[in-house]
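Now for a specimen:

…
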Amino acid sequence: MEVTVERFLKWKILPRFMMLLSTAMSWRCAEWFMDLDNPTSQQSAFVSVVMGVMTGVFGIWMGHEHKGDK
C-alpha cells in the first residue's frame, strides 16, 4: 500500500499531533502552577493566558475538523 501525499494530508496527522502537543503543554503548565507553594500574580497571569489561548486553539481546531467532514 502506497501512502500518497493526498492520503497523508487527508489523515490530518500534523494538526492532530500539534493539538496533542498543545494539550500536553497546557497540562504541564497547570501541574507546574498547582505545585507552587506561594504563586505570584505574574505566575497566575501566565497560567491564565496559557489556558485562555488553549480555549481559542481548541475552538479553531474543532472548527477546522468540522469543515473537513462536509
